[in-house]
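Attaching the record inline, Q. Sequence:
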Amino acid sequence: MSKRVLILATDGFEQSELIEPKKALEAAGFETVVASPQSGSIKGWNHDNWGESVTVDAALSDVAAEDFDALLLPGGQMNPDKLRTEDKAIDLVEAFDDADKPIAAICHGPWLLVEADIINGRTVTGWPSIRTDLANAGGLVVDQEVAIDGNIITSRKPDDIPAFSKALIDALQD
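Structure, as predicted:
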């Protein structure tokens, strides 16, 4: 049975940070499931404007960490800001961390790691405007394309997607 990756997102996700890792994961043989508090589809943000829509495969309320092998948290400013107010989203992040399953967060996605209080003492990176938040949550903040600390994988921006995707795929193949 193929390993399954939960992608947690809502309207305003950075289009490339969901679509490109999803394609890379699927090309590597992994199943991806997009979960959201919304049903139907969610709309991406592409640079300075609304982008493509992505089909929602499962309701946030219906997914559980034990049914997946890893969690992918795309960025975009709006997406994680909305999701960090969803108790179920934060509970999921905590459950993946408690199970020591890979959690990959890019750009503004690490805001969810802050909200779940799981980065204290861990090396992380993210979009420049959230690095103070990461440091205030006890993260050891670096400026590099990918930071891996145990089960936590973080990246800064869309340019880092190839390294970010590879790090998650490598973690799933171990």
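The mean pLDDT is 97. The chain has six helices and twelve strands.

More tomorrow.
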